[in-house]
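Before the break, one more example. Copy the sequence into your notebook; we will annotate it together after we see the structure.
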Amino acid sequence: MPLPLEGVRVLDLTNVMAGPYCSMVLGDMGAEVIKVESFDGDTSRRFEPQVGGESYCFAVLNRNKRSIAVDMKNPRGKALVMQLAAKADIMMENFRPGVVKKLGLDYDSMKQHNPGLIYASMSGFGQTGPYGRKGGFDIIAQGMSGIMMMTGYPGGRPAKVGIAMNDIASGVTALYGILGAYIGRLRHGSGQYLETSLLEAGLAWSIWEFGAYFGGGELPTATGTRHRRSAPYQAYRSQDGYVTVGAGSEKLWRAFATQVCNKPEWLADPRFNDPNIRVKNADALEVELEKVLTTQPTAYWVEKMDAAGVPGGPVYGYDQIMKDPHIKARHMVVDIDHPKIGPMKTLGLPIKSTGALTQIRQPAPWLGQHTEEVLREIGYADGDVREMFAAGVVYDSARSGAPATTEQE
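Here is what the structure looks like once it is written out:
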């Protein structure tokens, strides 16, 4: 059975995390993704650890793609990208706003040659507005979106989310925008331009906080691991670490108090006998729960909660979750062979389906690995290919006599 995006051509000019995450998922769904890089390559190619001269982090994020290295400031390089765009279904970029316009590779230029093109831009703050020309990274967006002020513990310094949350949010937002636009083209026949930003994509995930702020004037602040609307719902100390408990509803609270902790008196305690009151008395609740939970190790409490039907789990380090038998059973760590790294691990597919939906088909490419292959596919003869390399228009890091690197904006 073919994958859903088999035959869909994606021209990917993105860099680092947000855009490459989006194009990786499109590739997982079967799209043919051509990653266009400068001679220096994607910035994340320089990230450690390096194995066999290749960044392991880059390799995890850029599977199911082919790489061509092009000097887009060279008129011939720009013409090559335009040739590829003329045959693409989707084009993606995450340069600072205004750069693709200066290069002549913006949507208005591209749609003249390909009116059905779906063109997606990702940036720090969007293409318009007072901050539209500012550059932006994940940390900037986390700080400005209020997320850092509501992360960490009360009274502490602002804390970023442990992963590049706004980057991934932007990639996911662009992904559903692209898929929606592609479905629209299938139904109505026209392409379109779409754009999102690190700031807006992350802000769009603050659903409960938005409702509480505009509904009741509540300002979301740091609460550690607690939920703002439910208790007990946090990580509590156990004898040997921490255990998470999700028992905010009355049914789950009763089961937790009686079957897990053997404390039926908690049900009559006026500090805890109503869901909203428990939230207001979360400090006292934490004290009482930890008197009990610190008497046994985490594994003991997880087993008790499982038996009582109360959601709960251990607080793992990353090394622990990577070794957990459930993660192995769900195939979230996959072995793949990379042409330079050799045998390596890559993240598995988080969607499981009854039909063909996603697949890891090929490892990430080295810089410019498919430059010659792509040139030949669009009609360049042997002599033309050699001349393009010799003239420094295109590049492959594995070819001898490679030109000096160039800097893209």
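The longest strand covers residues 32-37. The chain has 17 helices and 14 strands. Try to locate both features in your own notes.
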